[in-house]
Amino acid sequence: MKPSRFSHSCADAIAIALLALVTSAVGADATPYQTRAGADDVQRVVIVGGSYFFRPDHIVVQAGRSLEITVRVEPGVIPHRFVLESTDGKVLADVPLGKKAKTLRFALPAGDYLFHCPNRLLLFKSHRERGMAGVLEVQE
């Protein structure tokens, strides 16, 4: 039996609808985390690391204000680090993540700062290559 043109049209429509649904779901998670300054004019954010992720992985802060980043790791056996690099690649922080949260303080000029975990096991991709990275966007 030969499929009709109608069945192909329906299948195409269903595929397009599913693609739109998946795309909208992915886009919802892609919204950057916006910090707000507290009464003391300090912006604060908590970054949690885990099995090849940082959450949030895109953070927006304002230049000209103090920033406190608290980093911690979810329970697990794989060791991770939090490395923050300046816009020119200079390392601003390199902190091993442990059970106890660590707080880092910065006053950063505008720009995009990369954070990632550089750890890797021999012959495997680094944690950064596996998706454990993010951007700290400092806006004017």
Short description:
This protein is an alpha/beta fold. The protein has one helix and ten strands; from the N terminus they run αββββββββββ. It is 18% helix and 41% strand.
Write up this protein.
- The protein has 140 residues and is an alpha/beta fold.
- The chain has 2 domains: 1-30; 33-139, Immunoglobulin-like.
- 18% of the residues lie in helices and 41% in strands.
- It contains 1 helix and 10 strands.
- It has one helix at residues 5-29, and strands spanning 33-34, 42-50, 53-55, 58-62, 66-73, 80-85, 91-97, 102-106, 111-116, 133-139.
- The strands form 2 sheets. The protein has a 6-stranded mixed β-sheet, with no helix packed on it. A 4-stranded mixed β-sheet has the order 3-2-5-8, with no helix packed on it.
- It is globular and about 45 Å long.
- Which structural category do the helix and sheet elements fall into? alpha/beta
**CATH homologous superfamily identity of the largest domain:** Cupredoxins -  blue copper proteins
Strand order of the largest sheet: 1-4-10-9-6-7
Low-confidence stretches: 12-28
| Multimeric status of the protein | single chain
| Helical coverage, percent range | 10-25%
Instruction: Specify the biggest β-sheet.
Output: 6 strands, mixed
The total count of strands amounts to: 10
Mean pLDDT: 84
Rg from alpha-carbon coordinates: 20 Å
CATH overall fold name of the largest domain:
Immunoglobulin-like
* Top CATH class of the largest domain: Mainly Beta
- Overall number of structural domains: 2
Measured between the Cα atoms of the first and last residue, the distance is 65 Å
Number of helices: 1
Shape: globular
